[in-house]
Amino acid sequence: MAEYKILTINPGSTSTKIAYFKGEEAVFTENVAHDSSELAQFDRLSQQLDYRKTLIEKCLADSSLTLNDLDAVVGRGGGLMPLAGGVYEVNDQLYRDAKNGANGVEHPANLGPQLARYFARKASCSTFVVNPPDTDEYQDLARMTGVKGVYRTCHLHALNLKETALHHARKQKEIYQKVNYIVCHIGGGISISAHRRGQMIDGTDIVGGEGPMAPTRAGSLPLTGVVELLNDGVSASDLRKLCTKNGGFVSLLGSADAKAIFAAAQKGAEAEQLAWDSMIYQIAKTIGQMAAVLKGDIQAILLSGGLVNNADLVSQITDYCHWIAPVYAYPGEFEMQAMANGASRVLSGQEEVKTYTGRPVWTKEAFPF
C-alpha cells in the first residue's frame, strides 16, 4: 500500500480523536479533550462544530503538523441513512444527512463528516467516511420479527468489525469476500456479527437492545420483563438508556469499570463473578446464533475491542466456541487505522469509492407484512 498522508477524525462525547498517518503508520495521535461545561452551552451536536474545529486546529498547530500535503481526510460517519459497507466520498447529501441526523440518531459521530470536509477543503484533498455506524448489509431473513410492522434494524460497531475481518484475512492470506467469519467487538458495548463473503448479513442491534449484556448495555431482555418495568413506572426514555448506557454492569453493579469488576471477581466477590461470567456466557451464546446463520461454514471467530485484553474473557469464549471454528484475539480497537486503510484502498485503486445517495438500502414497504 502506498504511503499516503491521511488525517483521521473520530468525534466522541467528551473528546475528538485525531491521527495523522503516513502509509500504515500513525505518526501522530491525539485525544483532544472537550470541557463538559463548554459542551453544555450547545443545544445540538451540530452547534459544536466550530468549537471542535478550533481545538483541533490548535492541536495540529501546536504539533507543527501541516495540512498542505494531505491526500485525504477521513471522518467517523454518523447520522446517515442505512447504507452498504464501504468507503464513501463526503458529498453534499452525505454532509447534510450527517449534519441533520437523517436517521434520527444524534451521536458525536455525526460531526465526523462535517469536520473532515472542513479540514479537507483547507488541504484541497479528498474527504471520506469508511464503514459508518449506519452500515447495513442484513439479509431479509435477518430483518423479520413475529410482529407485523416491526423489523430488526442494524446498529453495529461496523468500522471496527469490518477492519478486524480485513486485518485477519490479510494475515491468513485469505480474501475477505470469499470467506465466512463471526466477528465480535467487545468493549463498553458489544457487537457480534456474521460475515458471509464480505457482507455482514446478521448481527446484534446495540442500540435496539439485542445481544449480550455489556458493561453499559442491557442486551436482550424478556419482553414480559420490559412490560413489568413499564407497569412499575419506568419511562420509555429510561428503557432506551438501559439499551445504550445504563444497562449491564452499570445496572447490576453500579459501575461500567470492567477491569475493577473482574479484579473483584478474582478476589471472590460473588456478584461480580456472576455478572462477569454471565456476560461471557451471553457472548458465546450469541456467537452460536451467528454460527447457525452461517450454517456452520465458518473459517474463524474473531474477537476485538478493549475487553479482549482480558485473558480470562478470551479463554472462556474459546472454551465455549472452539468447536465452531478457531478463535483469534485482536485486542483493542482499529477505528483510526481502519479509516486510514479505507482511504488508502480507494486512493491506490484497490477499492472503488461509493456515492452516498441518502436512499436507505431497505424500507418497510419492501416487505409483504
Automatic annotation (TrEMBL):
Transmembrane segments: none
Record keywords, A-Z: ATP-binding, Cytoplasm, Kinase, Nucleotide-binding, Transferase
Assigned EC number: 2.7.2.7
SUPFAM superfamilies per the UniProt record, alphabetical: Actin-like ATPase domain
UniProt-listed InterPro entries: Aliphatic_acid_kin_short-chain (IPR000890), Aliphatic_acid_kinase_CS (IPR023865), ATPase_NBD (IPR043129), Butyrate_kin (IPR011245)
Pfam families, per database record: Acetate_kinase
Gene Ontology CC entries for this record: cytoplasm
Molecular function GO terms recorded: acetate kinase activity; ATP binding; butyrate kinase activity
Top-rank taxon, per record: Bacteria
Coarse class of the protein's main subcellular location: cytoplasm
One annotated GO biological process: acetate metabolic process
Subcellular localization(s) per the UniProt record: Cytoplasm
Reaction(s) the record says it catalyses: butanoate + ATP = butanoyl phosphate + ADP
Family: Belongs to the acetokinase family.
NCBIfam families: butyr_kinase (TIGR02707), PRK03011.1-5 (NF002834)
Protein name: Probable butyrate kinase
Organism of this sequence: Streptococcus pantholopis
Gene assigned in the entry: buk
